[in-house]
Design goal:
globular, single chain, 19 helices
């Protein structure tokens, strides 16, 4: 039997899917999982593939030492295990089993990017640490994910052929193609350890926000406009044929038109309105606060999930509200046109926030990133794949030093043209007492971005009053700081 070119440690949903994808593309793979059930399931899934011409082989082993013995050298071991201490524990066990300094260990989980940076330091000289953030879920991993690779630069040369082969691909127009069709791979080496996981973290923050925006549009159409789930799904399907085309819009349209197999009711109406989260959206919001980048839509999406969890409180509170808003809409088509424009503008606002966050962190960390490349590898395979990403990539190719996506063509023109519908929707939702926190936050972000003067002058004056934090003057150089002697009469200005 030929030695395997790569191994997967962890044969759960993602690990097994990645292994089978590699086999599909002719690579020999060794697999291991501590759970014999997962080992057996992976073995059975590979049987039909192994019989096909041109496929690789999946060999499932019973121990890490067998895993290492089955690999060609230098060995490549991909980990598909839960993020956190499990990653460190498995790496330590691999070292005990005989891992060599030239061997490559790839973390493919949703690890916190700072953990990846730490591991690169901790294991330096013992192995070549690499990480690849994967987006696309089970289906993406199986037939073509988006791959955000980073870590030891020398490892990329060995990993690259495999990753480019299994990644999702797009055609010349930037549209996704089938698993075995030719196209541009949605995989790229982004930089040193941590970069790939950081970019994936922000991807997930954008994902949280995009999901919330679509959910808010559904809620407004249902509660304020009185449309049925099926009618909303049909509307989403139409919208998906235009500028709002995206994976999330497509699956939302399907979900809303799907009946519950038990009751026959619309499936979405039998799903409890409590949304879970695994933490990556929260990590993005926290990182935005830490770096001083405004990402209010992402933060509101996280808060919305948290508030959805307060089901009992919400049920009780709803009974106490004596004057809920209500609005009579005589022209629903106009409302839908406004909502379409609001959703598009808010979506662009989210991408602007996400790329601004990546850019700011890159500057702080000394990373050199290709933002056009990032937009390109998000065009297929990942959850936030959308038509607008091709336009975003084009913008960054033409103007790499973009300050904010909302300030450049074609986005500036589009938002200025559609902003009236955005404002009308936010106002209508407030009047109808339908919460749209992410959509409203996006609008406030846009307005603040375009405001020559903000009330921060009063904020800074307040800070100087109670904390002597100082202030700059509009009629002097910003670097010169002053303090007003608030407790004295007459008040005097001092140079700090």
């Amino acid at each position: 039997m030929m030695p395997s070119q790569i191994s997967l440690v962890g044969l759960g949903v993602m690990g097994k899917s990645l292994a089978l994808n590699l086999v599909d593309h002719g690579f020999n793979v060794a697999g291991f999982d501590i759970d014999p059930h997962y080992r057996q399931a992976a073995h059975e899934a590979a049987l039909s593939l192994n019989q096909a011409s041109g496929k690789g082989q999946l060999t499932v082993v019973d121990s890490l030492s067998q895993l290492l013995a089955s690999l060609q050298t230098p060995r490549v071991i991909a980990l598909s295990v839960p993020a956190g201490e499990v990653v460190d524990r498995v790496i330590d066990e691999l070292l005990v089993a005989g891992l060599a300094p030239d061997d490559i260990v790839i973390d493919t989980g949703n690890s916190l990017w700072t953990d990846s940076e730490r591991r690169a330091r901790d294991y330096q000289g013992q192995l070549r640490f690499f990480n690849t953030a994967i987006s696309g879920g089970e289906v993406g991993a199986r037939i073509g994910p988006s791959l955000m690779a980073s870590g030891d630069a020398s490892a990329w040369a060995q990993v690259k052929p495999m990753w480019l082969a299994i990644a999702a691909k797009v055609d010349h127009a930037g549209q996704p193609v089938g698993q075995f069709e030719q196209g541009e791979p949605c995989a790229a080496y982004l930089g040193g350890a941590g970069v790939g996981h950081y970019v994936k973290m922000v991807h997930n923050g954008i994902e949280y926000a995009d999901m919330q925006l679509i959910a808010e549009a559904y809620h407004f159409m249902s509660q304020a406009l009185g449309l049925s789930a099926v009618e909303i799904g049909q509307c989403f399907a139409r919208w998906n044929q235009g500028p709002l085309n995206s994976y999330l819009m497509a699956i939302s349209a399907e979900i809303l038109q799907t009946p519950d197999p038990i009751t026959g009711k619309p499936f979405v109406e039998v799903v409890l309105d409590k949304a879970g989260q695994k933490g990556t959206g929260m990590w993005t919001a926290v990182n935005a606060l830490q770096t001083g980048v405004a990402a209010p839509t992402i933060a509101q999406a996280v808060f919305a999930r948290a508030q959805s969890g307060l089901k009992a409180v919400r049920v009780a509170a709803a009974k106490t509200r004596t004057n809920p808003g209500s609005v009579a809409y005589h022209d629903i088509n106009t409302q839908l046109e406004n909502l379409h424009d609001a959703l598009y503008c808010a979506k662009l606002s989210v991408y602007a926030q996400g790329f601004d966050l990546i850019n700011t962190t890159a500057q702080q960390q000394g990373w050199t990133l290709d933002f056009a490349q990032i937009a390109k590898i998000w065009r297929a395979g990942c959850i936030i794949r959308a038509q607008c990403l091709s336009e975003i990539a084009s913008v960054y190719q033409q103007t790499p030093d973009v300050a904010n996506l909302l300030l450049v063509a074609p986005f500036a023109e589009a938002v200025n043209r559609q902003a009236p519908g955005w404002r009308a929707t936010v106002a209508s939702a407030a009047q109808a007492a339908v919460p749209i926190p992410a959509m409203a936050a996006s609008l406030s972000y846009f307005d603040a971005l375009h405001s020559e003067v903000l009330p921060a002058n009063l904020l800074q004056a307040q800070r100087d009053y109670f904390g002597a934090h100082g202030y700059a003057r509009v009629d002097d150089d910003e670097s010169r700081q002053y303090h007003l002697t608030w407790s004295e009469q007459p008040k005097r200005q001092q140079i700090r």
